[in-house]
Amino acid sequence: xxxxxxxxxxxxxxxxxxxxxxxxxxxxxxxxxxxxxxxxxxxxxxxxxxxxxxxxxxxxxxxxxxxxxxxxxxxxxxxxxxxxxxxxxxxxxxxxxxxxxxxxxxxxxxxxxxxxxxxxxxxxxxxxxxxxxxxxxxxxxxxxxxxxxxxxxxxxxxxxxxxxxxxxxxxxxxxxxxxxxxxxxxxxxxxxxxxxxxxxxxxxxxxxxxxxxxxxxxxxxxxxxxxxxxxxxxxxxxxxxxxxxxxxxxxxxxxxxxxxxxxxxxxxxxxxxxxxxxxxxxxxxxxxxxxxxxxxxxxxxxxxxxxxxxxxxxxxxxxxxxxxxxxxxxxxxxxxxxxxxxxxxxx
Length: 347
Ligand code: CP3
Fold this sequence. Notes:
The protein has helices at residues 7-12, 33-39, 44-48, 51-65, 78-82, 115-118, 120-132, 144-153, 161-169, 171-195, 212-229, 248-252, 267-274, 293-307, 327-341; strands spanning 70-71, 87-90, 94-97, 137-142, 199-203, 237-240, 258-260, 279-284, 313-317. By secondary structure, the chain is α/β, with parallel strands linked by helices. Strands 1-4-5-6-7-8-9 form a seven-stranded parallel sheet. A two-stranded antiparallel sheet has the order 2-3. The structure holds coproporphyrinogen III.
């Protein structure tokens, strides 16, 4: 397979496609019985550190759902763990750090990433997958703001109080922190592309907690440095966050090829906010996937009709698959997307 001619990459570049490509954020994971069985007692981070296992966990949803892309089985905190931060991923909660960041001295805990050494297992997983996949592989990184929020809060947060207090009280420290994180993420993404991923997604999952003014000053410059720093590699760059309705224009202008949209903003409105013609990714509400199948398919159909006017569309959920989702429902969504958008079916 030549990934550059795949339906995913064609849609990202706003070229004609035989059908709309579809994949799901968090398509691997607890919603799949075969995932729970194969991972067994291993923690997420242990599974990621075992290339054969991580490759198989990446492949499971591709086989099960017939999606048009695989996403590397890894996590946004992996490069930080790789440089020695003591982060644990607590089931049902997320990444937790025993000693949160708060002072200049903490910057020394963020040494530069040497990807070939520090991320050797992840690079090996990409190499294995290159020989196994017949759809493109998406690599990813967490954006500096989202990563910094875990480091400053010490774990997941609802208010981001400590993070926002730090950025406003000590802007120099904050900028030094996100600049270091940007360097780490850029090195990680470049290594993933060089090892064989065909597209990348920058997850700024929690950017929607910021006002546009704060986003522009405290988050956007570091994200832009990453996205522009991989422009020369020529792979599509997907830029995603949750609750980012007011930030879409800024996110679209930051070295972004494809703008990820959550379920709160209809795709036609998101296209206007993007400010220029570009491909959009999204945006079925993951919680709706817990409703009866006919409701889910109707909502998926609504997303597809919103997308008809777009120059390019990658069907996805507006955020990750919820663990309690019935995999049969996601399989039916993939079938619907392929059927409804197949050019051979159009009048
Ligand atoms: O198919 C895939 O998408 C798998 C690859 C993947 C994982 N994490 C593995 C994982 C990806 C793309 C991520 C990204 C990630 N990790 C993000 C950005 C995406 C988003 O959801 O906004 C964030 C914020 C994290 C941090 C993180 N890791 C959280 C919040 C959690 C959830 C904790 C929980 O138990 O609910 C994790 C754990 C994690 N990373 C799981 C997986 C499959 C779930 C743990 C499990 O399956 O047991």
